[in-house]
Design goal:
The longest helix has 16 residues, at about 130-145. The protein is α+β, with helices and mostly antiparallel strands. The strands form 3 sheets. The protein has a 7-stranded antiparallel beta sheet with strand order 4-5-6-10-9-8-7, sandwiched between helices. It has helices at about 5-20, 40-55, 130-145, 210-225; strands spanning about 75-80, 85, 90, 95, 110, 115-125, 150-160, 165-175, 180-185, 190-200, 225. It is about 25% helix and about 30% strand. It has 2 domains: about 5-55, no CATH class; about 75-225, Protein Transport Mog1p, Chain A (3-Layer(aba) Sandwich), CATH 3.40.1000. Keywords: Lipoprotein, Membrane, Transmembrane, Transmembrane helix. This is Gliding motility-associated lipoprotein GldD. Pfam families: GldD_lipo (PF25593).
């Protein structure tokens, strides 16, 4: 059905709405924290008035601010035998060598070209060194906490994988560059960390379907993780 509200009248009542004072409390940058005063009733009446009195002119609504994402059906494959760990990763992803300046042996990137998403995976040996384990856990916490400036929530949970490994899952909300991070360890020999990034300038709200898709894929990686020593 075509909305026949004229564009000029739409602009008109928007201008009037802007002229009405509304009271906002809390963090003005976050829409969930806006609380409007009793003037909201006048706003509603004005909107209904302009809709009721508008004349006929074809009006095409603006498209959504993001493209519809085509998410592939999940399908998995195993990592190559050259790594000291194994897990199942997506058949829609490419396995790449780490490209960072501080890269180490056995660090990899699981890249999703269709979604422009990358899971950066790092691996460390613990060798029954509790001090080393604490250092790795502290580093992982610091890397997650540095996103607090832009994140409006960081939700962490400690869980056990089906094979009994301890995993720490961190979900970050807000306009953060990394939306999902995790560590997995057996507390004696092996320590693995992963972080999700998107190589795009699209806002995270618009990426929400892709982020949820990636979270499920990463959880599959975590739940199928095995050490080879």
């Amino acid at each position: 059905m075509i909305d026949r509200r004229p564009a000029f009248e739409t602009r008109c009542f928007i201008d009037i709405l802007k002229s009405i004072n509304t009271k906002v409390t809390g963090n003005n940058n976050h829409p969930r924290r806006k609380v409007y005063s009793k003037n909201s009733g006048y706003i509603f009446l004005l909107v209904m008035f302009f809709i009721a009195t508008s004349c006929t002119r074809d009006y095409l609504p603006k498209p959504l601010g993001y493209n519809r994402l085509e998410l592939p059906e999940p399908a998995y494959q195993s990592l190559p035998d050259t790594l000291p760990y194994s897990f199942e990763y997506s058949r829609h992803a490419q396995l790449l060598a780490d490209t960072s300046n501080i890269r180490e042996r056995f660090w990899i990137e699981v890249y999703y070209p269709q979604l422009k998403a990358n899971v950066h995976v790092t691996y460390k040996r613990i060798n029954n060194n509790n001090k080393l384990l604490k250092e790795f856990l502290d580093d992982a916490y610091t890397l997650t906490a540095k996103h607090q400036i832009k994140a409006y929530a960081i939700n962490e949970a400690i869980t056990k994988t089906p094979s009994g490994k301890t995993a720490v899952i961190a979900e970050l909300e807000g306009e953060v560059p990394s939306q999902f991070q995790f560590t997995v360890t057996d507390s004696t020999k092996n320590f693995l960390r992963g972080a999700l990034y998107f190589n795009t300038h699209v806002a995270n709200d618009s990426l929400a379907p892709a982020i949820e898709y990636m979270k499920k894929d990463i959880m599959h990686m975590i739940n199928t993780l095995e050490w080879k020593n």
